[in-house]
């Protein structure tokens, strides 16, 4: 599997039709989310060397695509209690750690913490990696409770017009 070339293809599709850049997360998963789930699941099975090679090939634009995907996966894992969506979203965040400022990732972490609390989904697969991302996650989880809730990063949980829970950014 050529992960970088597949990510580039998905980035092109996202830019061409704009479907993936929507602010509202639809009730059912977009084709782009399904494809990115497949790609992140494949990434997990790579060797450390191959993962490093993939991460070194991620552009800023691909990183923003993966960040959007991670936000969507937090929402879909909340709606479905699906551990795979949860883990794949965290994997996407780990892939962009060396590309985007870690503060961008920290803005998303309260979503995952909220899903963890509400649905009991686990950070275990990430924490077991014992890498830079697992250290970032562990540091986030060790924060004071008020420093990891939705409101501290400007989010609220709302119910959309289709009666689906969704995260809304307040700023």
Short account of what is shown:
This protein has helices at residues 3-17, 31-44, 48-56, 60-80, 83-96, 102-119, 124-127, 132-141; strands spanning 155-159, 165-169. The chain is mainly alpha-helical and 171 residues long. Helix 1 (3-17) runs antiparallel to helix 2 and helix 4 (60-80) packs antiparallel against helix 5 (83-96).
**Lateral arrangement of strands in the main beta sheet:** 1-2
Average pLDDT, rounded to a whole number, is 93
State which percent range the strand residues make up. 5-15%
Please describe the biggest sheet, giving its number of strands, its sense, and whether it closes into a barrel: 2 strands, antiparallel
How many helices? The count is: 8
Beta strand count = 2
Q: Give the helix/strand class.
A: mainly alpha
Q: Could you tell me the radius of gyration in angstroms? A: 15 Å
Helical fraction equals 55-70%
Low-pLDDT runs of 5+ residues are none
Note the run of SSEs as H and E: HHHHHHHHEE
* N/C terminus separation: 38 Å
Oligomer: single chain
Shape: globular
């Amino acid at each position: 599997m050529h992960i970088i070339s597949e990510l580039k293809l998905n980035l092109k599709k996202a830019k061409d039709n704009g479907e993936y850049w929507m602010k509202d997360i639809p009730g059912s998963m977009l084709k782009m989310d399904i494809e990115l789930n497949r790609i992140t699941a494949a990434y997990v099975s790579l060797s450390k060397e191959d993962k490093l090679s993939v991460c070194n090939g991620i552009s800023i634009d691909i990183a923003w695509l993966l960040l959007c995907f991670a936000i969507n996966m937090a929402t879909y894992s909340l709606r479905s209690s699906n551990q795979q969506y949860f883990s794949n979203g965290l994997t996407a965040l780990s892939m962009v750690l060396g590309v985007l400022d870690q503060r961008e990732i920290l803005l998303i972490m309260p979503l995952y913490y909220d899903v963890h609390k509400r649905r009991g989904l686990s950070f275990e697969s990430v924490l077991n990696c014992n890498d830079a991302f697992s250290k970032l996650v562990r540091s986030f989880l060790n924060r004071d409770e008020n420093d990891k809730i939705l409101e501290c990063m400007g989010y609220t949980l709302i119910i959309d017009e289709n009666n689906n829970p969704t995260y809304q950014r307040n700023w």
